[in-house]
Amino acid sequence: MIPCSAAATGQDGSQGRDAQAAAGQLPKVGAGAAGFDFTALDALGMATAAGSHDCVADHVTGLVWSAETLAAQGWMDAASAAASYSHCGIASGWYLPTRRELLSIVHHGASGLAIDGDYFPATASAPYWSSDAAPGGQAWAVNFSDGATLRSSATQTYPARYVARVANVAPLITLGANIVVPREDRPGPRIYPGWATGISPGPMREAGQHLTATVELLPLQSGDPKALEFETPPALDLATGDLTFTIQHRIDPDPSDRGELMEEWYSSAGLARVRVTLHDDGGTANGGQDTASAEFTIFLDPAPVALDQPIKHPWKAACIPISFMAMDIDTDPVIADTWHQGDPWPYPTFRILTYPSKGFITDYVSYHTPDGHQAIRFASKDLSFDYLLPQSGMVKVGTQAAAATVVVQDSQPDLQAVMNPNPPRAGWDKPGSLRTTFNWIMTWCYVPFSTTFVGSDVLTFDVTDPDGNVSNAGAINIEIFETK
């Protein structure tokens, strides 16, 4: 509204969308005569060129009009038939327009047919029913021969055109399966081509909408393992459906091993809960939805792996060396090595589950007993006990499982080498070729009970990492054979 004064630059026809269009100053989403802003839609509700189209989207009012003119009929029939009308991919929501809605597509700058004929070519030069009732069994209609309104008996037969106020439908996406990263895989960027499918702004009629995606890491839930950390967080390419991320890892040159260019460690393993949120620009008018989300997980098992070891050795009445091996990609070798000052032990801990039945194992490594003395630990299926290390360095051991007496020589043990084993790591000699290296906790001895024993024996063990994750059970299978 403007004040009616001499200073005014014209009245109705000099203001508003029509005047702006005449001056070339009216931006439009679509096209149309004067101030109208229409987009033609095909049978699927997709934007198409005006001509043989089926519907018209009005960007001024937000209404979608059927371009079809229905046959002349009574007012009640025209109103009730809208409930079963389906057109342009819109299966429901059509109705007989109000009088004001019909007037919104009247073209007052045209005569003979008061409508934009490029977008409504099938319009009759006749009154069209509106949904507005009038007293005395009458109803309102709009005459598209001149744009005038009139009241007629509801039994009069006039053509009709249906309209829908379409709400935006939420965007669509189907996520792929939860990601499980193999523990033996090489660290580095990971890509899952076409992992997400069915990505669209919604029904076909909304194909022109712009989509954006947000990928966020969610808090872990009760009972989840530790959090998986990323060097490059998960991202989704909406054009291809590709999922990409890089798990945090450490690359460290190893000057002690010139046979390899470098050693690599994962420095993170665990679970990540991830949410993908899609947003389109269709808006939320009329109860529409412009956002949809879905969730998935990425898991790299943080538990260590106890490795089976076959030990084949010629007959020997004394020590047969065995080694306990495990792989733990989740242990970070950068942890401060201050366990001897009271900090937690930063490396995996090995535990014997079942002892051998035909011999015993001895730990050639000395350690401090609670009273501060150095000792050596001996163990078998039936017995596990400690002996103090005498000053002579000789230990005489007898077991309850065998009458034989075994003498074990232990020179000065290297405590630092024992308690600070090489950190676990996974290394590669060349791209794509995995060479696994392990935690070597220490070298133990297997000693048969019988000095003439030939055959097989077994013991099992597991590993607990610094985070409390427990491995599978590993087995050391010992086979003693007689040489000829």
Tally the helices: what do you get?
Answer: 4
Kindly state the number of beta strands. 37
The residue ranges in which pLDDT falls below 50 over 5 or more consecutive positions are 257-263, 364-370, 374-441
Oligomer: single chain
**Major sheet description:** 7 strands, antiparallel
The total number of structural domains is: 3
Structural shape: rod-shaped
Tell me the distance between the termini: 114 Å
Radius of gyration, in angstroms, nearest whole number: 41 Å
What is the percentage of strand-forming residues?
35-45%
Mean pLDDT metric: 78
Which structural class fits the helix and strand makeup?
mainly beta
Helix content estimate: under 10%
Topology:
Elements: H1 16-22, E1 38-41, E2 47-48, E3 55-58, E4 64-66, E5 70-73, H2 75-81, E6 94-95, H3 99-103, E7 127-134, E8 138-143, E9 148-153, E10 158-160, E11 163-164, E12 172-174, E13 179-180, E14 189-192, E15 197-200, E16 211-218, E17 230-236, E18 243-247, E19 249-252, E20 263-266, E21 270-280, E22 291-300, E23 305-306, E24 309-314, E25 320-327, E26 349-354, E27 359-363, E28 367-368, E29 374-380, E30 384-388, E31 394-398, E32 405-409, H4 415-419, E33 425-430, E34 433-437, E35 439-448, E36 455-464, E37 474-481
Parallel strand pairs: 13-22, 24-37
Antiparallel strand pairs: 1-2, 1-3, 3-4, 4-11, 5-10, 6-11, 7-8, 8-9, 12-15, 14-18, 16-21, 17-18, 19-20, 20-33, 21-22, 23-25, 25-35, 26-36, 27-29, 27-35, 28-29, 29-30, 31-32, 33-34, 36-37
